[in-house]
Design brief:
The chain is an alpha/beta fold and about 220 residues long. It is about 50% helix and about 15% strand. A 5-stranded parallel sheet has the order 2-3-1-4-8. Strand 5 and strand 6 form a beta hairpin. The protein binds BIS(adenosine)-5'-pentaphosphate (AP5) and magnesium ion.
Length: about 220
């Protein structure tokens, strides 16, 4: 069983890389942001409490986040392990997590702020199936249209300039110290995230000693 946390500044590629690992190694990908966005899309009770906070790029209160993580991990559907994406993001969340769980490694995808801002500004998501596009490295064949389902492509609500600045501020003030804490426990694997998606995936697999897939080998 493998238990990982994937960390890094907003837009560094946590979701992209975690999904690639999930597909090949049957790891469960637990993205707190995806769980929140699902709630907002489905207009759940929780959505009313978090919608504005997320759109403004602020952090959702810790008690809500902890409840989400606790319930999700209690599902015990992670026989081969999990990758936690977007959690923990501050000291309290890391204490909460380490009280009950242990991990094998923290994968830190290191990308400068300037580059992530470019990536986030170019991100588009299919409003129907949720597929990720990027106007720099993954353009749709027909502008603003999903190649797979024909859905309309849109920006994520929190991918505007003001929310992005707030997200980056939160990362440097609150999340970076958590990374330092994991570093002191010698759990952090630093991966340069400025290369192509495949190069970064390749590097992650080398660092955590997982086999490199044919797809990744061919395109690296
Ligand atoms: P969350 O959904 O986790 O957003 P985030 O942290 O801002 O990170 P992103 O999802 O924007 O970036 P990513 O690193 O996953 O990059 P991606 O692979 O998409 O959280 C959203 C919100 O929920 C938070 O702001 C907060 O409000 C709330 N929240 C979540 N967790 C919380 C917590 N623990 N506590 C409190 N609140 C919480 O890639 C980005 C783009 O770049 C994509 O278009 C992709 O195609 C492209 N890309 C990726 N890799 C590359 C590459 N190597 N080269 C070129 N382009 C690339
Ligand atoms: Mg993400």
């Amino acid at each position: 069983m493998h238990k990982y946390i994937i960390m890094g500044v907003q837009g560094c590629g946590k979701g992209t890389q975690a999904k690639m690992l999930r597909e090949d190694f049957e790891l469960v990908h637990i993205s707190v942001g995806d769980i929140f966005r699902w709630n907002i899309q489905e207009h759940t009770k929780l959505a009313a409490r978090i919608n504005r906070i997320i759109s403004a790029g602020k952090l959702v209160p810790d008690d809500i986040v902890e409840e989400i993580i606790r319930k999700r991990l209690e599902d015990h559907d992670w026989n081969y392990g999990f990758i936690l994406d977007g959690f923990p993001r501050n000291a309290r969340q890391s204490e909460f997590f380490l009280e009950s769980y242990d991990i094998d490694a923290v994968i830190h995808i290191d990308v400068p702020d300037k580059l992530v801002m470019k990536r986030v500004r170019s991100r588009r998501l299919c409003s129907h199936c949720g597929l990720d596009y990027n106007l720099i490295h993954r353009r749709p064949a027909v502008p603003d249209t999903c190649d797979v389902c024909g859905g309309r492509l849109e920006r994520r609500k929190d991918d505007n300039e003001q929310a992005l600045r707030e997200r980056l501020r939160n990362y440097h003030n609150k999340t970076a110290p958590v990374l330092d804490l994991f570093r002191r426990k010698e759990l952090v694997l630093n991966v340069d995230g400025s290369g192509t998606v495949e190069e970064v995936q390749n590097e992650i697999r080398k660092r955590i000693s997982l086999p490199i897939s044919e797809y990744v080998e061919a395109s690296a």
